[in-house]
Amino acid sequence: MLEVEGLGIRFGGNHAVQNVTANIKPGKITAIIGPNGAGKSTFFNLISGFYQPTTGRIRFQGQDITRLPTHDVVARGIARTFQTTTIYKELTVLENAMIGHRVRTRAGLWDALLKTGREKRDGGGSRDGGMAALERVGLAPQANLLAGALTQEGQKRVGIAMALSSDPKLLLLDEPAAGMNPEETVNLMALIRELVVGGLTVALVEHKMSLVMGLADEILVMHHGQKIAEGTPAQVSRDPAVIEAYLGSHAHGGQMGEAGASENAEASHA
User: Fold this and answer.
1) Are 41 and 174 in contact (CB under 8 A)?
2) pLDDT tens for residues 81-106?
3) N or C: which end of the chain has fewer CB within 10 A?
4) Listed residue (168, 231, 175, 179) closest to 207, CA to CA
């Protein structure tokens, strides 16, 4: 579904991502893991069009999307969430979900100002699309509540609904379980599985290895901006390079199986 070849980006003299070649398969859950500062979120930013790569190529469903701006990437069928919950807490749950659907509408500024028929049709379509997304994440009964009134898990689901309302084929989840307790994490795992059974392809960046090992079909491991391993959870967990990368980060507070801190080295570029 998604193929990257020789992908890389430099910030000054720093190779945040370097010569990564990988394949995200349709109908699967692919996890991108690695120690803090490994380049995982930067890799997501390249795929989703937030960054333009210095080197390499990105192909989605056979088409080159390497230089497309973010809104065109979303229109092609790739949506993402972020490390921090980027929802509008002062808006209702439904209004948040409707925002994501707007990428599929054709009405412009003048349509909105003049309240044209196209604007009315698109508004109704966005409402329907938003409600459909809320149904998928289990939030339809809370549609009219303010998003800020929901629990941490609920707000995470709102963020996922915003992405789903753009009708993606590939959903990128950046640390979806961050800040969640074990019960909420289990609930999130169940939701992701349901989305994939429903026809979606998912790629996620995650520190919680219990989630990764129990959920992912394939794992891509990054370290210092490079891919060091790729395979099934069983294959990756036995890979000497992966073990060394995580043991080497132990002195800095991270190890395989630990949730870990946010990727400070990447945050300045996220």
Assistant:
1) yes
2) 887 667 889 999 999 998 876 654 45
3) C
4) 175
Extents of the domains making up the chain: 2-77+168-267, 91-166
Alpha-carbon distances, residue 30 vs 7, 71, 169, 199, 215 (angstroms): 18, 23, 14, 14, 9
Homologous superfamily of domain range 2-77+168-267: P-loop containing nucleotide triphosphate hydrolases (3.40.50.300)
Strands of the sheet with 2-11, listed across from one edge: 14-24, 2-11, 55-60, 63-64
Kindly state the average pLDDT of the residues 32-54: 91
Give a three-class secondary structure readout of the chain: CEEEEEEEEEECCEEEEEEEEEEECCCCEEEEECCCCCCHHHHHHHHCCCCCCCEEEEEECCEECCCCCHHHHHHHCEEECCCCCCCCCCCEHHHHHHHHHHHHCCCCHHHHHHCCHHHHHHHHHHHHHHHHHHHHHCCHHHCCCEHHHCCHHHHHHHHHHHHHCCCCCEEEEECCCCCCCHHHHHHHHHHHHHHHHCCCEEEEECCCHHHHHHHCCEEEEEECCEEEEEECHHHHHCCHHHHHHHHHCHHHCCCCCCCCCCCHHHHCCC
The rounded radius of gyration (Å) of the Cα atoms in the chain is 19
Higher pLDDT residue, 270 or 131? Answer: 131
